[in-house]
Amino acid sequence: TQLLEQSPQFLSIQEGENLTVYCNSSSVFSSLQWYRQEPGEGPVLLVTVVTGGEVKKLKRLTFQFGDARKDSSLHITAAQPGDTGLYLCAGFKTSYDKVIFGPGTSLSVIP
Amino acid sequence: DAGITQSPRHKVTETGTPVTLRCHQTENHRYMYWYRQDPGHGLRLIHYSYGVKDTDKGEVSDGYSVSRSKTEDFLLTLESATSSQTSVYFCAISWALGETQYFGPGTRLLVL
After folding, report:
1. Which of A67, B46, B68, B86 could bridge B34 with an S-S bond, Cβ 3.0-4.6 Å?
2. Is B51 left (phi over 0), alpha (psi -120 to 50) or beta?
3. Which residues of A touch B101 (CB under 8 A)?
4. How far apart are alpha carbons A90 and A31 in whole angstroms?
């Protein structure tokens, strides 16, 4: 059983469309992170959210941490082919714990 | 980007043979980690190290051992490789538990 669930597992969209991917848990996390992994490479950190209800923006990407700190979402506006990759959420139950990774959402943006 | 290299990048081996993967960092981070990545499972922690000669098990440690004799090197050994250990292996580093992890480029291992 995954402590962190991600949905959808796969997503294929046309360039210019908007999308949202989700990271959910029944547990409370002190912080959640989002990573992007391109084919053949290691994951790269995009953002860390630490406060319930927090919203962070990174250009066309908007990240939100749920009020109860059990879930997070990633919204991409006007997706581009360069956004293609595996999006992983990762959480720390406390600041002294090892990180827990979700299974990922594989995004494909078609030109 | 953090200086992390993994070697080899690709390896094909036969069932029952020993395999050692190397992770090398130039960032002087205290913590080093080995993960495996398989479809549908995300990244699963195998072992991690919190200093020279200090290591601990992760969630999928069976069949794997590790060693860290220097700050910059963390070795992962499959004592007797099995087909279930076919995977992509990633090394990561961090300053401390709860801090951001930086990942290496990965090693793709195929056990026939």
Report:
1. B46
2. left
3. 45, 99
4. 9
